[in-house]
Write a structure and sequence with these properties.
146 residues; globular
Length: 146
């Protein structure tokens, strides 16, 4: 019983670095927006890459604190692991992306996010519940009546 009392604490506290990372990504994006910029600069590059990494890693850690339903389609360790690995990839892009133009830097930092989206779509479309939802969406609202 005592264990249940402290368990929501990490879930609550992990949202603060997530919020800070989201704000830092937007601050870095504002610095990359001017069209006459040809170089991202080390500070802006690190701000964008590190903030994206912190956001992905924090989301992965938050996911580890959630109670899983028995029929949960995502893997218990696969989904958070992909988010943490995506955060590491964002840090690697920040480390070795010094010569990238601002637009190419932003496009390359989409790769860790695209990995999450592909995994989510894969899991969604391979579950039987998704097949039922698709078939229900394709049928009319009154097909089952009568």
């Amino acid at each position: 019983m005592a264990q249940r009392q402290w368990w929501p604490l990490p879930w609550n506290e992990l949202h603060l670095p997530l919020l800070m990372a989201i704000a830092a990504v937007s601050a870095a994006a504002v610095n990359l927006l001017p069209l006459e910029r040809t170089d991202a600069g080390a500070g802006v590059r690190w701000l964008l890459a590190a903030a994206g990494a912190v956001a992905l890693i924090t989301i992965g850690l938050i996911e580890l604190t959630l109670r899983r339903d028995p029929g949960e389609p995502t893997g218990q360790w696969t989904s958070p692991g992909l988010k943490i690995a995506g955060g590491m990839l964002a840090l690697a892009i920040g480390t070795w992306g010094g010569g990238l133009a601002p637009t190419l830097l932003e496009i390359s930092l989409l790769l860790p996010l695209i990995i999450q989206m592909v995994y989510g779509a894969y899991v969604w479309f391979r579950t039987p519940a998704a097949e039922h939802a698709v078939s229900a969406a394709q049928s009319g609202p009154f097909d089952a009546v009568g």
